[in-house]
Request: fold
Amino acid sequence: MTNDQKDPLFILVKSLSKSEKRQFKVYVGRLGVNTDSKFLALFNHLDKHDTLDEDLIVSKGIVKKQQFSNLKAHLYKQILISLRLSPLHQNTRSQIREQLDFASILYHKGLYKQSLKILDKAKTLAMENEEHNIAYEIVEFEKIIETQYITRSINSRADELTVEAKMLSMKNVLTSRLSNLSLQLYGLMLKSGYVRNDKEHQEITNYFNGKLPKYEWNMLGFREKLWLYKAHLWYSFIVQDFLSCYKYSKKWLDLFYEHPKMIVQNPVFFLRGNHYLLESLYLIKDKAQLKSTLQEFENRITDLPFPKDDNIEVLSFQFIYNNKLNVHFLEGSFDKGEYLVEEILSGISEFKNRLDDHHIMVLYYKIGCLYFGMANHRKCIEYLTKIINNKSLKMREDLMCFSRVLSLVAHYEAGMDYHLETQLKETYRFLIKMNDLHEVQKEMIKFLKNLGDIYPHQIKEEFRKLHKRLKQYEDHPYEKRAFLYLDILSWLESNIEGRPVADIIKEKAKGLIR
Reply:
């Protein structure tokens, strides 16, 4: 029995839309001999079944056991060829590639002039859309042909191609260095989250400045600026400079609005720019702009001209629901956000083969926080347990750490403190191992550890003392990160005043005027 949830062929077949399945059958049927082929029989079988059962497929006589892996590989390739030919998957980049393939065929037939003509058109299209990597590839191909096809303008042509190649090479090197820096910073953010002290702040600043390539602004095109803004954005996130996060995510989006055709050409980058702008607005607590920007974002991606494909569908789901939850967290309207849970779980189920563990766990953490705000602590624990028990989660150590701390608080609130001592020890060991023990966490663990020695009539006074100790860290450059994951101060205030935590957050939200 094959694990169908991990089998690439099974996942690919199940991801196909009705029109894509129809397209595949038309593609296969273009040659009459294919209508009874084994790979089509295997496709039809997988299309009709909800699992990939190798023994069943062999028993039905579709293929012999020894040939099964080869047949799967052949079917996988044929589906990809069919998808490549589909108009739904055609874009400017694929059109340029297609022209490059045609030019290569003509070159190998010795039809140099025709090949050069096609290459010139493809290069113009690539340059117009700032596809500099493909443009460089085309120029190099032109240079090869020009050495074999002698024209009267060979001298000037050689100079032109040399200048073009040099210019494109410089742009590609700069873009590569900026994209490398952006990717490395993103990896650091996923691995460790925000900086935790002056030493880490200095290290990441030195790293960023050391890796940032020198450039002249007037030499930067769309792509170079995009990667530059990305690199600055991730650096700003890591050092917790959230106003700079807003600044660079806004520049990112403004760049697309200055080059509107790039929205269609690079819809994924446009979606991500919107998400990071929304995330930044949440972090700087700009409630009004967060709500209006989220509404504009939803309207934009549902417009007919906006590209539609499976990848965009998954990303739109992630970004919209993450930020819808953020709105409720900022407003303290936890009860009103409960309807989102069912929609999120439905989306996770629908996109389970295309969502990675990291993004699923982030959604689970936010659902846990939503239930904590509603004082439904058992539900909160249920979702946090999914994160804590996830042994495959290698990223976002900070998410793992704060899930454990919030789980401790939820267990206390739910009256489920019979295993609290064991959980405290496990959490403490985990935080030490992750090198993530901060003053806020130390104070929280110390408080929960001493709860058993506190008389009921003393509890409010202990809450006040803890609140006073933690309040000093609210604007601390590094300790404040704890409050980004869990509004501990509002929780303490709710216990001191005997009011729901949602009411406390709502009152604070009214005072947020930006």
Remarks:
- The chain has a mean pLDDT of 86.
- The radius of gyration is 28 Å.
- Residues 242 and 280 are 6 Å apart (CA to CA).
